[in-house]
Amino acid sequence: MIRRLLLLLTLTLTLGHAHAACPPVPALPSAAQQAAWAAKAPDRGPLWRISRDGHSSYLFGSLHVGKPDWAYPGPALRRAWAETEVLAVELDPADVGPALTAAGTPEPLPTALAQRVEAQARVACLPPGVLTSLPAVLQVSTLTLLEARRDGFDAGFGQDLMLLAWARADSRPVQSLETVAEQLEALSPPTADVPAMVDSALHQLRTGQTRAPLRKLAEAWSRGDMRTLADYPRWCACADTPAERAWFKRLNDDRNVALASRIVALHGAGQRLLVAVGALHMSGPQALPLLLARQGFTVEVVTPRQ
C-alpha cells in the first residue's frame, strides 16, 4: 500500500511543473542543507519509553507526511535508536507487493463519482486512470497527500519512511505490526458508505477544506501536542457523519488492541524495539500507551518534556 502510494506520488515528479496549478514538487535539499538539518534537528513528535521484563523499548508517534527538514531525528529519537535493535512499524513496504496483487482489482466507483475522482486527479497532474487500481478510500487519500504539497508537506518526508531508510542503511531488522490484508480491511468502510465518503472528500479537496486541518495536525504533531491530537475527530472535518465516525474508529481505535498485542509479543521475546506508529493511535480511550500500561508496562513520556 505504502509502496503503491509512493509510486503514484513519484509519478508527479516529472509532471508537477507542467501546469501552474499542479501541487508543487518538493525541491531536493542540497548536501549542505541536509548536513545542517541533521545537525540541528529538534525533537518532534511524541515519544515514550516503555519498560517491562527487565528491559525497555520506545514508542514513537509518527506522522505520515512531513517537510524536508522534518526527515531528520532529534536528540531524543537518536538516543532511542541507539538503545534499541529492532524497528517495528505498522507495515513494512517490503511486505506490500505480492499481497496487493493477490487482493485483486477493487470494486469500481459509480461512473459519475469515478469521473469526479478523475477530474480531481487531473488537478493534481496525475496521469489518466492511474488511481483506478486502488480502493476508493486510497484514491482520495492519494489526492489528499498530493494536495498537502501546496503547504510544503510531502509523504516522502514522513517519519515512518525516514526511520525505514535509516534501518535499511544500518541493516536493522524491521518488523511489521500488521499484515497488508489487515490494513486493507481497516481502510475499507462498508460498501454502502463509500460513495458518500468519497463525495465528501472530493468536495473538501475541490473547495480547499483539506488544507487547514492537515496543517493543524502537522503542527500539533511537531509540538507533541497530544491534547490537540486527541481532539482530531472534532476539528478534522473528516468525522462529521455517523459513517465517517464509524470508519475513523475502525481505522484508528479498533486497530490498537492488535497493535498493542504484537508490541507486547515482540518486547516479551526480548527484543528492544523502536516502535513507530501513527500519532493518532496514541490518543483516545484505546491509546497505545494506555493499553501497554494495562499490560504491565511502565510508560514514561520522553518528548515533549513535561
From TrEMBL:
Domain of life: Bacteria
Pfam families: TraB_PrgY_gumN
Listed CDD domains: Tiki (cd14789)
Species of the source: Pelomonas nitida
Cleavable signal peptide: 1-20
InterPro entries, sorted: TraB/PrgY/GumN_fam, YbaP-like
Keyword field: Signal
Protein's name in the database: TraB/GumN family protein
